[in-house]
Amino acid sequence: MAKSADTKCYVYLDGRIIGAVKDGSAFAKEIRKNRRAGLISGEVNVAFIRKLNEVHINADRGRARKPYIIVEHGKSKLTDELKQKLANKEIDFNYMIRRGVIEYLDAEEEENALAALEESEITPKTTHLEIDPASIFGLTVNASVFMEFNSVGRHSIALNFSKQSQGLYAINFNSRYDPRAFLLYYPQIPIVNSLAYRTLGLSRHPSGQNFVVALSTYYGYNMKDAVVLNKSAVDRGLGRSIFYRTYGDEERRYPGGQQDHLRIPPATTDGYLGEHAYAKLSDDGIVEVGTQVDEGDVLIGKVSPPRFLEEQTSFGVGEEKSRDNSVSLRAGEEGVVDDVMLSETTGATKIVKVRIRSVKIPEVGDKFASRQAQKGVVALILNQEDMPFSKDGIVPDLLLNPHSLPSRMTMGHMLEMLGAKAGSLQGTYIDGTPFSKRGSERINEYGHVLEGYGFDRFGDEELYDGRSGRKFNAKIFTGVVYYNKLLHMVSLKLQVRSRGPVQILTHQPTEGKPRRGGLKFGEMERDALVGHGASLSLKERMLDQSDKAEIWICKNDGDVGYYDYIKNVPVCQLCRGNNLERVEISYAFKLLLDEIKSMHILPKVLLKSE
Q1: pLDDT for the residue numbered 421
Q2: Residue 390 counted as domain residue
Q3: CATH of the domain at 258
C-alpha cells in the first residue's frame, strides 16, 4: 500500500474501492500478464486511468467485449504457424484465448490499448491488432456494403432504414397474426453483399430490390431528396408490397355472471351503428374470408353488458340491456379479409382474430432508401417512354439527384452502383465487405469488367431524353443499387378532416388518424403566421377552427358567469348581478380558469372597451 497520500492510486473493483497501490500502470500490467498466463479469469478487464490516477477492474456481467490479437515487442502473437494450424482445424478460437494469443477487451480497457488495423501498421507502441479491420463496425453495419467510404453519421441513419424496410420478415407469414406486417412481393438478394450478410444468412430474409439507377435531374421533379420512378417498372412489381393488419377481440367474462357475446348486435342495442355497418358479417357475427371491407365496416360484431347496474322497471324486474362493442376497420383503411382465426384463451373464453390484407403499390409520397442512407420520397411516377434511355434501350428504374451524394459524403453509394453493374453483367455476386479491398483496387476491378462488356469503365453512359429524343450533352452515371422500400407509405398516413370529433375536456380537435383527428398546427407554424403578420389566419386556426367558446364575464368582479334562460338574463355567481359581457375565448383558457379555481385561487378577467 502507498504511504504518502499524494502518491496513492486507488483501485476499484466493479466500482467499489478495494485498496490503493503505488504504481497504477505497473499494477494494471501485472494483472494483464497474469490474465494472459491463465492465472486469473479471462473475464476480468483492467484499465489504468492516468488523468484520475485510478485503476478500474471490471469483472461484472453484461459488459460488451471485443476480441483483439495481442501484440508484444512489435510482433503479433498470431504467427503463421498458428494460422496454418487454425486452417487445418488442429486448434480453435478458444485455444488461442487460453494460450494468450487473443484477449477480450471491454470499453474501459480499450482506452489503454493502441490497436493496429493491419499487421503492416504495427509500431513499437502498438499493443493489439484487429482480427479483421471490419470488426471496428458492429454486426449490423457489417451487413451493409462499402460503409468505410461513407461519413460516420450515415451509418446510424442507414441502420434505422434497415429496421424500417419491407421485405420477407418471416417465411410463415401466412400463419402469423402480427398487429402490423409489411411484405414485399418480389424481394431480391443484393448483387453486392458482405461477409456478415452471408454469414448471418440474411439472404433468406431479403428486404429490398436491385434498382437500375441513373444519377440525373429530371425537370426539377427530383429536387433535394425526391426520386423519380419508372411507371412500367412499378407495373412489373417494383416496390409492390402487401400490408397486413390484424384486428382481434374476445368474449370477456364480468363479475356477476355477465359476459360478452360475439354476434350481430340487435337494433335495440345501445350505440347501434345502423344496418349497413353490419351488412358484411355472417350469422356468427364475424366477417368472412375474401370480403372487401372499407373504413367503418364492422369486422367482429360484439354485444357487451351495460357498464352500470340495470335500472329496475316499475314492475321490479331488471330490464336486460346491452351495448354495442363491435370492432370496426380503422379510419382511412381498406382491404380484403385475408384470414380469420377462432381460438380460446387460457380462461376458456372465445377469441377471434381477423387479418386484413391490402396491396400497396408505390405512389407519390412513398419513401425509398438505399443501404448507404440515401433516402428519398417519390415525387413523380413517369411513363417509361418519357424516361431517359440508353442506346441499348436500358431505361432506369429510378432517377436520383446527383447533388445527394457529395453533400452527404456517401461515396459507398457510387461504388455500389459500379460494383453491382459489373456483377449484373457478369452474373455473379460482388463482395462489398468493409476494408476487404482498397477503393482504387475496387474501381479498377469493376472498371475492367465493364470495359470487357463494352461499357465505360467509370459507369458513365450516353442517355437520351425520353421527351425530346435528344442526347444529353453530359454523360450520366448509371448503375445498379439495392433499394429498400420503407414502411412510411402515404396511404397509411394520409388524413383529411373538415369537421370531426373533439376532446370532451378541452373541446379541441382529437389527435391522430385513428381518432379522425385534425392536423397539428404547432408552435413553429404559429411563429410563421406571426412573422408574416397574418393575424386573422392565426385567429381562424387557433380559435375559430379549434375551441372557440362564448362565455359571460362579470364587469364588476371579473368572474365567469352564466346565462339564465328562464329569466333571459346573464347572472354572476359571485355578486348575483346582471352586469355581464359576452366574450369569445379559447375553451382551453376557460378550463385553465376552472383549474385555478380548484386550487382555491380566484382569477379575475378584466375587460376593456375597444
Answers
A1: 96
A2: yes
A3: 2.40.50.150
3-state DSSP assignment of residue 162? helix
586 occurs within a structural domain:
yes
The H or E element that residue 24 is part of is helix 24-36
Domain closes at, from 485, 505, 523: 485
Using alpha carbons, select from 587, 573, 578 the residue that is nearest to residue 555.
578
Q: What is the pTM of this model?
A: 0.83
The label of the residue with cell 433499394 reads 483
Within a domain: 448: yes
CATH number at 511 reads 3.90.1800.10
262-269 long-range contacts, CB within 8 A, separation 24+: 262/286, 262/300, 262/301, 262/302, 262/350, 262/352, 263/301, 263/302, 263/303, 264/301, 265/301, 265/302, 265/303, 265/322, 265/324, 265/326, 266/303, 269/303, 269/322, 269/323, 269/324
Q: Measured between alpha carbons, how far is residue 127 from residues 74, 77, 102, 108, 109 in Å?
A: 8, 11, 12, 15, 12
Active-site residue, 225 included = yes
Question: Per-residue pLDDT for 315 more than 80?
Answer: no
Residues 524 and 555 in one domain: no
Q: What is the DSSP string of 320-376?
A: ---EE--EEPPTT--EEEEEEEEEE-TTS-EEEEEEEEEEE---TT-EEEETTS-EE
Three cell numbers, residue 424: 449484373
Residue ranges making up the domain that contains 77: 9-136
Rounded to a whole number of angstroms, the CA Rg of the chain reads 35
Within a domain: residue 391? yes
Same domain, residue pair 385 and 519: no
Q: What is the pLDDT of residues 233-288, one digit of tens each?
A: 999 999 999 999 999 999 999 888 888 999 999 999 998 998 899 999 999 999 99
Catalytically annotated residue among 80, 92, 178, 225: 225
The tally of domains found in the chain comes to 5
Same domain? For 404 and 472 the reply is yes
